[in-house]
Amino acid sequence: MRIWKQLLASVMVLLVLLGLWVYLVPSAGDTLIRMGLPGQAVALLRGAPSSIEAASDQTAKGEPAQPGAVAPAPAAGQRRSGPRAVLVAVEPVALGTVNDRLSAIGSGEAIQSVVVMPQAIGTVSEILVSPGQKVKKGDVLARLDDDEQLIERDKAQVSLKSATEKSASYRNLQSVARLDLLDAQIAEQGAKLAVSTAELNLKRRNIMAPIDGIAGIVAVNIGDNVTTQTSVVTLDDRTSILVDFWAPERFATAIVPGQPVEATSIARPGQLFQGVVEAVDNRIDAASRTMRIRAKVDNASDQLRAGMSFGVAVRFKGETFPSVDPLAVQWDAEGSFVWQIKDSKSVKTRVRIVQRNADTVMVEAALKEGDQVAIEGLQRVREGGAVRIAGASGPEVASQ
After folding, report:
1. CATH number for the domain whose boundaries are 86-96+320-399
2. Which of 56, 129, 211, 342 could staple 141 via S-S, CB 3.0–4.6 A?
3. Tens digit of each residue's pLDDT (9 = 90 or more) over 309-339
4. 128-146 burial, b if ≥16 CB within 10 A, otherwise e?
């Protein structure tokens, strides 16, 4: 490319940049005139006649213009040339609440759960419960072989009968020594205890339900040899579900027993379950800085199961702060601020961001509910500058 083409391109770029500066900065035209640029050229860049240009027109008409003279004021009905009001979109300030809700994930368990184990060693001879069956306390769930215990009970009953008759005959005889009578009575009492022991051993051959609940999967089969450590079946009382979750330290004094709780489950989408805080732990975990909370959720309809994961929500009074649109928050060297609109003027109001949400920003600032802040057209807004609100109508906008 020849040198004159490069110079021409440079001049064109310079003129474009100069025109943008004059268009965006109202005082730029006067600065160029003071630097010696003709008023006609500045007016061409700005698109409106300046006071210097008016003075030049008077000179052309034969009216001398003295150096430093002020241009005459416009006649009545004419508009004075000057910076135009900036068009902005605004949104009123609302009020929002922070720290008013605790959301956590918890694990549920039955209000009472028991792993049923035999009280004796033996072979399973009968199973009387099936998975999912509701049982009552004392119901027989399974039986062990009891032939030996039946024999021991019968032997104890025979011994008791013999001891009872001997004791009765000694009491009726006057010639029996008092010591022999005492021995017969002791033998009778021992026989009674032997019968009780035999009956207890026989009763323990029945595996019974210790609580009301619903049976799980039976873990043994008929013919299995079991011990006192063998798990036969699990019983869950799930009329209520206990949900354990962890809360941050800042909620340590806010959560109290009896406080309402809302719970949701992945297994029951769209359903909300009501409950209360059942218990609050007595200490905060030093590693995670959290505290264990236990909630009790009613399950009278039997829709929930032990082991489910729950989303738990606890509501609080919280703190109230002004809430603005995220587009309203601007930044400069001193921090964050918003442009507050007062009497068609822009006022820079400093804010401190408290919490960011999806569509709002909670701030700490000298703002009240209903105050208007600018959210669009902020590039040309200046402190104390005139603004006009998009979509507004009335005498103020008409005068501008």
Report:
1. 2.40.420.20
2. 129
3. 999 999 887 788 999 999 999 999 899 999 9
4. ebeeebebeeeeebbbbeb
- 103-109+235-318 — its CATH code? 2.40.30.170
Whole-number Å distance between alpha carbons of 215 and 234: 6
- Return the amino acid letter for 384: G
Which residue matches tokens 């508009």? 79
Q: Is 374 exposed, middle or buried (0-12, 13-18, 19+ CB in 10 A)?
A: buried
Angstrom distance (rounded) from CA 120 to CA 142 = 12
The number of beta carbons lying within 10 Å of the beta carbon of residue 280 is 17
Indicate the domain borders of the chain.
3-60, 86-96+320-399, 103-109+235-318, 146-204
pLDDT, tens only, 46-69: 654 444 344 344 433 444 444 434
Q: pLDDT tens, 337-382?
A: 999 999 889 999 999 999 888 889 999 999 999 999 999 988 888 8
Q: Count of CB atoms within 10 A of residue 340's CB?
A: 22
86-96+320-399 and 103-109+235-318 have identical folds: no
pTM of the model: 0.56
Q: What CATH topology corresponds to 146-204?
A: Helix Hairpins (1.10.287)
Sign of CA dihedral 156, 162, 165, 170: negative
